[in-house]
Design a protein that fits this description.
Length: 308
């Protein structure tokens, strides 16, 4: 992807240094490897923000590269600090089920793009959801109701109005797991056990059960399901935990617009409490939120992190 050239300085004369800088702009790195080839950095990005610090990290990254950003905050999900960081004219707060209001906000912001970041409590999607008329119409036509089908339907409605829903990894390339040892010189389990863990995690993902598992010497201790990663890790910790490995992956046809697996400090803390000493994360696909802090903390606790 080519990054649009910077405009030349205003005025009739351009110095030699400025001219060199202008000509060299085409060599500048892209804003992100996860943007569409025709991405226009002048058009506003509407950040649809859920729980956690993922939306805050994304907002910071957008601002750092000078992309105009607007906030659509979800009631009882988006952090108050993130909301307060946006001027009133550049933010809107809605309930999770208010799809009509979401689409109106995108229209009011004249957004060219939307980007989903952060989690929504699973129970809000399946219990106690109070959809508006637009959302109710969509839910009525869904044969299966899970996070993927619900968010997929929302994504389709967003794109119907001409707003491009971006890959949720966009602008945070530096926060992704990378291949090879991230903490520790090598993964502290035999290669065959690593391959076993990857195989099980991918099968669980293929079946749409979860995106992770914990294995030990060829035995599956726990798999991730509706309860989430942390509960799975705690269950695995009730068994013998020497040479255990937590594996996090993605589905073969993962929709990265709204379903990106995340590994952060809370997950690392849960691993430590459960006595699990190693994790293997799919490189370029699993987000390691606050990556420098996570790697430093893992090193201090003696937890190995590996990208496959």
């Amino acid at each position: 992807m080519r990054c649009p050239s910077r405009a030349a300085p205003r005025g009739f004369f351009v110095s030699a240094a400025a001219e060199f800088d202008f000509m060299d702009a085409s060599l500048a790195p892209p804003l992100s490897a996860f943007l569409p080839p025709d991405y226009d950095p002048q058009r506003p990005v509407a950040l649809i923000a859920g729980r956690g610090n993922y939306p805050t990290i994304t907002a910071t990254a957008l601002r750092r590269v000078g992309v105009p950003v607007r906030l659509i905050a979800l009631e009882d999900e988006t952090s108050a600090e993130l909301i307060a960081s946006f001027p009133e004219a550049e933010r809107m707060q809605i309930n999770v089920g208010q799809l009509g209001h979401l689409l109106s906000a995108l229209r009011d912001f004249k957004a060219g793009y939307a980007l989903m970041a952060g989690q929504v409590k699973p129970k809000k999607l399946f219990h106690g959801l109070t959809p508006d008329l637009k959302a109710a119409q969509i839910l009525f036509h869904l044969k299966r109701r899970n996070a993927e089908t619900i968010f997929g339907a929302i994504a389709a409605e967003i794109e119907k109005m001409g707003v491009r829903l971006l890959d949720a990894r966009a602008f945070i390339d530096d926060q992704l797991a990378h291949a090879g040892p991230m903490v520790g010189r090598k993964i502290p389990v035999d290669r065959e056990y690593l391959e076993h863990g990857i195989h099980i995690a991918r099968e669980i993902a293929r079946l749409d059960v979860g995106q992770g598992c914990v294995v030990r010497k060829g035995t599956v201790l726990a798999v991730e399901a509706f309860e989430g990663t942390d509960e799975m890790l705690r269950r695995a910790g009730t068994f013998k935990t020497d040479e255990t490995l937590f594996v996090k992956t993605v589905k073969i046809h993962q929709d990265f617009r709204f379903d990106v697996p995340v590994f952060g400090l809370r997950t690392l803390e849960t691993m430590r409490e459960a006595g699990l000493g190693a994790a293997a994360l799919e490189a370029g696909k699993v987000i390691v939120l606050e990556k420098p802090a996570v790697l430093a903390q893992a090193k201090s606790w003696g937890i190995s992190l590996y990208g496959f």
